[in-house]
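Case 294 in the screening queue. Each case pairs one protein sequence with one candidate compound; here the compound is NAP. For every case the pipeline is the same: read the inputs, emit a complex structure as tokens, and attach any notable structural observations.

Predict complex for case 294.
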Amino acid sequence: MPAQIIDGKRIAQQCRQRIAERVARWTAETSVRPHLAAVLVGDDPASAVYVRNKRRACEQVGIRSSLHSLDAATTTERLLELIDRLNADADVHGILVQLPLPSQIDTQRVLDAVHPLKDVDAFHPENVGLLAQGRPRYLPCTPHGILQLLRHCELPTAGRHAVILGRSDIVGKPAALLLLQKGEFGDATVTVCHSRTRDVATITRQADLLIAAIGRPRFVTVEMVRPGAVVIDVGINRVDGQLVGDVDFEAVREVASAITPVPGGVGPMTVTMLLHNTLQAAQTLAGQRTAGPP
Ligand code: NAP
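Case 294 output:
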């Protein structure tokens, strides 16, 4: 039987509806509108599209967004000055630095400079450390989006073998940390593979839950998937003008029990979790209790 298609677009829409209701309630109570400051450096068209989509999503749920653009030749120091200003601005609750930054910029220094309470991407070492210790403040957007897809589709992770392809700081590593957490939608047994892993297919065939985040079009073939596995495709690759994932969707959907499409799977959830974190940041900065998952 072909796999259940995990409709990230629909689930993201439901989550955004709930976030919009929370934002409206909180703004009515406090007269404070959550505000996300987006920082865009240079003129990379893909980055500009990502930032535009994030800002549009903010508007849809009642979050204010502002755009801070710097030219491609900006220095690390100039960017750090902007981050300092946004950190000090009580009107700004979340700061998003769109990656990748131009090569002359020290990305690590910039990400480290974002105030940890305004770090809605959860890239700051303090937030990464809290996550590693099992007491997260903000959850990283893409891995959190994956967990919310699993939760909404009632696909449990406890006791399951989760195999993650990719060990990036943005997806692979934090996804592993989240799945390792004690409690609901954690408690998995986690294996992380990377480019130096030997015989990847033998490992992926043991997965109850397979998460592909490597950025290689259709890398995961049907032979690499255990029948009945849940397959989450994070990859976004452009092939002949088309967006494709890291999974050979058409073949793998015939053996998996559930699978995310690309586009329309993980992508919409990533932006949704950014909205959730921005509301959380506004509430945290105001010293208030934050709401649970959307
Ligand atoms: P990244 O920083 O480029 O990391 C890629 C990871 O894949 C690395 O850990 C690399 O191993 C590993 N890898 C590469 N080739 C491999 C192979 N043949 N076998 C096993 N592992 C291999 O990528 P990323 O930022 O995590 O992004 C991954 C993909 O997800 C990209 O297509 C990106 O566009 C997409 N993405 C999507 C979303 C979304 O919202 N849907 C969000 C973020 C990223 P090494 O560490 O050994 O080099």
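Case 294 observations:
- The chain is about 40% helix and 15% strand.
- Residues 142, 165-168, 170-172, 193-197, 200, 213-216, 234-237, 266-267, 270 surround NAP (CB under 6 Å).
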